[in-house]
Design goal:
Elements: H1 5-17, H2 20-27, H3 31-45, E1 50-51, E2 57-58, H4 60-80, E3 92-97, H5 99-112, E4 117-122, H6 129-133, E5 139-142, E6 151-165, H7 167-173, H8 180-185, E7 188-190, H9 197-206, E8 214-216, H10 220-228, E9 234-237, H11 238-247, E10 251-252, E11 259-268, H12 276-289
Parallel strand pairs: 3-4, 3-5, 7-8
Antiparallel strand pairs: 1-2, 5-11, 6-9, 6-10, 6-11
Helix pairs in contact: 1-2, 1-3, 1-4, 2-3, 5-12
Length: 295
């Protein structure tokens, strides 16, 4: 027996907005109606779907069912075409994307796509594909040239990074040049514990694995400011720091050793037809803004 779409809508709204009251307001019903719909859905499934907390969170099964509801809405919107544009709310799409892509080239691609609401999961490009494996997102920008099972993979290009720091930082920590000994003790920036870009650059530069003191700053603006203020060195997309390099506020640790990070667009095959317009914009702008991938 098909699941009642109003029950799925209630589940999605609770998890998206974090409370029964907010879900009720978004769907123009009472909180009691939302509670009854969720209870009926949980009885129908035979399992708890929402943890009643502040905010409400999904159980693993609740996450999968909410993702199913999202997919159904996207497929219906694609099938109805212009008729769907008259709906009260656009369809919602959950994506896994790296923060640096959001801060460089990806937002214009999302803005150019047909009207839909985006729910972004920010993750490192090396691990974004895990969201696809868990079935938690419909598409992702990843750093791996290997399609997740059940997904189509589209090469995009490479985002170029440079290892940079402020002139004062360079004078303080690298007075005699960029040596392994200096790199081992000079404070370094990482986005999160998943961010291995700086470690790969160190290995490329020295041939060694080093473990310098490290700041974790999961914010692109904070990451950039930390480099500008001399807290540490880090790998930053060149497109974000061209003016700082031109003015001398930042300098490269080694101008001959930039690092190109390859990027790929992966979309679940079942959703690929519905997401074809978005894929076209992702490819168009990605191929235009990113560096060509090395063969």
């Amino acid at each position: 027996m098909p699941i009642d779409p109003t029950q799925l809508a209630a589940l999605s709204a609770i998890l998206r907005l974090g409370s029964f009251e907010a879900a009720a307001a978004s769907l123009n019903v009472t909180p009691s109606a939302i509670s009854q719909r969720l209870k009926a859905l949980e009885e129908r499934i035979g399992a708890t779907l929402v943890t009643r907390s502040q905010p409400c969170t999904a159980t693993p099964l609740g996450t999968r069912l909410a993702k199913h509801a999202e997919d159904v809405a996207l497929l219906e919107a694609a099938a109805l075409g212009d008729i769907a544009k008259e709906a009260a709310l656009p369809a919602r799409l959950t994506l896994a994307v790296p923060a640096d892509c959001m801060d460089t080239w990806l937002v214009p691609a999302l803005a150019a796509a047909p009207a839909m609401l985006f729910d972004l999961r920010i993750d490192d490009q090396d691990t974004a594909d895990e969201w696809l494996r868990r079935g938690a997102v419909s598409a992702a920008v990843t750093g791996k040239n290997k399609a997740v099972t059940g997904c189509d993979l589209h090469p995009l290009g490479a985002l170029r990074y440079s290892a940079v720091a402020s002139p004062d930082y360079m004078a303080r920590y690298f007075p005699a040049g960029i040596t392994a000994e200096c790199l081992a003790s000079a404070p370094m920036l990482t986005f999160t514990s998943k961010d291995q870009l700086q470690a790969r650059w160190i290995t490329a530069k020295t041939g060694r694995s080093l473990y310098p003191p490290t700041h974790q700053m999961p914010s692109t603006p904070a990451f950039d400011k930390a480099a500008l203020t001399g807290m540490a060195w880090g790998m930053i997309p060149e497109s974000l720091i061209r003016d700082h390099l031109a003015s001398g506020r930042l300098v490269t640790l080694d101008a001959t050793l930039p690092m190109d990070v390859p990027l790929y667009w992966q979309v679940t095959r079942a959703m690929a037809p519905a997401l074809a317009p978005l894929t076209r914009e992702i490819l168009r702008i990605g191929l235009k803004q990113l560096r060509p991938l090395q063969r």
